[in-house]
Amino acid sequence: MDQWKRRYEEERERVEALAMRLAAVESALEVVNLERAEQVLLPPLWQDELERVQAERHTLVEHNAQLVTKQRELTAIQEELEDVWYQSALSRARRRSQPQPLPIPPLLPPSPPPAESASTP
Question: Alpha-carbon torsion 26, 30, 31, 36, what sign?
């Protein structure tokens, strides 16, 4: 009876080991199948991503061109403002550096002083 029991235990351990190996092989096979499925799905996903990135790049290029145009416009406005400021400062400096004209006395003859009225006591 001990012999049968020992053989039973050995056989059970062998079956358990085979079950573990079978589970490992099934797991590895599932990983391989998933990788193959990903390989089939990835090229379309990559193509979609590539198209999305290209569209985004095109949008950014257009936006950059608009920003460059705006920057040129702002630079031109800034130069105009600098010219106006310079001309204004130059005009103020000229006015300040010119001698102030002396006030010219009026050419009208002085009016006679008002006559005092003679009052009788």
Answer: positive
